[in-house]
Amino acid sequence: MMQRVQQIVPISHFRTEQDSILQLVDQAPVVLAQRSKPRAVLVNVDEWNAIADELFRLRVLAESRRIEGASDPQSWPVLDEAELAAKLQQHEAGLQNVAG
Predict the structure, then answer these.
(1) The whole model's pTM is what?
(2) Are residue 38 and residue 55 in the same domain, yes or no?
(3) In Å, what is the CA distance from 59 to each residue of 10, 34, 49, 69?
(4) Considering its fold, how many domains does the chain have in total?
(5) Residue 7: what are its φ and ψ, rounded to 5°?
(6) In terms of domains, do 48 and 58 share one?
(7) Strand pairing partners for 37?
(8) d(CA 35, CA 51)
């Protein structure tokens, strides 16, 4: 899917041109640039809520697929002893990183 060309506005213009920039936000997200580098994105509230809702639905879908896969023994990987030992070491190392 093609994406629109981004609307880029210097952050310094936001102080003096708030109204016109907020009108741009109603059309598409606006990238605020500081020293010619993207610094922030302004998004219409309705678009933000739509993105948040879609993200929530995708997370629920991913979690349901994870649970579904975990309950299906056919989908469980078969590990030999060396693979199991390596997985346990990785898991323990991760726990140590979190605790340490």
Answers:
(1) 0.57
(2) no
(3) 34, 33, 15, 15
(4) 2
(5) -85, 115
(6) yes
(7) 34
(8) 28
